[in-house]
Amino acid sequence: MIVIAYCTGSGHTARLAREIAAGIASEPVDQIDVEKITAQGWARLDSADAIVFGAPTYMGSVAAAFKSFMDESSDRWSDQNWRDKLAAGFTVATYASGDKLVSLSQLSVFAAQHAMVWVGQAEIGPKGSDLSAVNWQGSWLGLMATSSRDKSVLIDEGDLATARQFGARIESAVRRWR
């Protein structure tokens, strides 16, 4: 099972979580909003083959709600509950840079502290800034997305396509890791 654990501010991160899940074709997938996590949610994380962490980038790092989740996971760290699980991460911010690499670095270090194995982005993006292209931001550590100027869609199609392909990559890694 693949679990996508995320927090969302205005819905952008939740939209990406749904698209990542849509890219996962044959593995069971669950989505958990970490701001509403229950004991059952923690148990699902503990039994997952892979956990995909997602948070918006606010003020140069992951959102405070996700950081609280990270801090709450400390019992799992000391017991090594997530050791050797696959991990991946995604983030979204208002601007193309928006310090999203800092957030992905935080997520990957968090996974490393839990002795998890990180899965990065594999899609080669275009040279330039074609917002309709897959991985147009050239992110390799994880999925980066930029919130759309059109608030009715939240995320532009290039980033949504990247999210679906990222989900497929994570699914492939889970099958290979088994």
Question: Would you give an account of this structure?
Answer:
The protein is α/β, with parallel strands linked by helices. The chain has one domain (2-177): Flavodoxin domain (Rossmann fold). The protein is 39% helix and 20% strand. Strands 1, 2, 3, 4, 5, 6 and 7 form a seven-stranded mixed sheet that branches. Strand 1 (2-6), helix 1 (12-22) and strand 2 (29-33) form a beta-alpha-beta unit. Helix 1 (12-22) crosses helix 6. The longest helix has 21 residues, at 157-177. The model has no long low-confidence stretch (mean pLDDT 95).
Count of the separate structural domains: 1
Task: Tell me the name of the CATH class.
Answer: Alpha Beta
Q: What percent of the residues sit in helical stretches (DSSP H or I)?
A: 25-40%
Please tell me how large the radius of gyration is.
Answer: 15 Å
Q: Overall pLDDT, averaged?
A: 95
CATH topology, by name, is Rossmann fold
Overall outline: globular
* Structural class category: alpha/beta
Give a brief description.
The protein is of the alpha/beta class and 178 residues long. Helices cover 39% and strands 20% of the residues. The protein is built from six helices and seven strands.
